[in-house]
Sequence to fold (250 residues):
Amino acid sequence: MPAKLSVNLNAIAMLRNRRDLPWPNVANLGRIALAAGASGLTVHPRPDQRHIRFSDLPVLRALIDDEFPQAEFNIEGYPSEDFLALCEATEPEQVTLVPDDPSQATSDHGWDLGRHQDFLKGIVARLSGKGMRVSLFVDGDGRPEPMALARATGAQRVELYTGPYGGCHDDPGQAVRQVELLGRTADAAKAEGLEVNAGHDLTVENLPLLVKRIPYLAEVSIGHGLTADALEYGMAETVRRFCRACGQAI
Fold:
């Protein structure tokens, strides 16, 4: 089954936040994305609300519930008490836990699962107990050992950090090597009974090689590259292009 596409709305929200104005309309662009074939929406509400605002969450939750009940809402972030309270109030289908420092511009590394396993266990149990699927942001460096630690937290999925792969956009040979490392990590996760997501700097151009190496990829979450393409092609056509790059017949 082809990987599903979750559209990350952070870059759109950041553009909106440049002015004290309600456009671009985050919810309406999410609506266009879902109508064009996206399977879900992703947001990463940071403490400073520099892109997605806390007030966006109930609006996007209502959009999915009222108009696209088959779609999923994915909220990602560092599991502070405030973040967990947002998740419990919004009830997303999936929560992706990332080890971000609040000052980071974007997610740029996965969890140190040996160090944070006990910390994550309680959080995973708390969220899972309320019916939310939990995914852990992990490095796709080819090592199999961390996937056993991920499984031991009780998480249902991992999300491969694909930033190093995205950074190889001008080096095809290195891209092939990075995809193989991601594939080895994914294979180890699958062997542990975990489903596999991926995200960060994925594009229409680099998705096909990734999904060929990881044909069981469950979901890709894409924001920056998709938003950049939407400026050129429009949101609806961009979503269709990304869905096709995932192997979907759309």
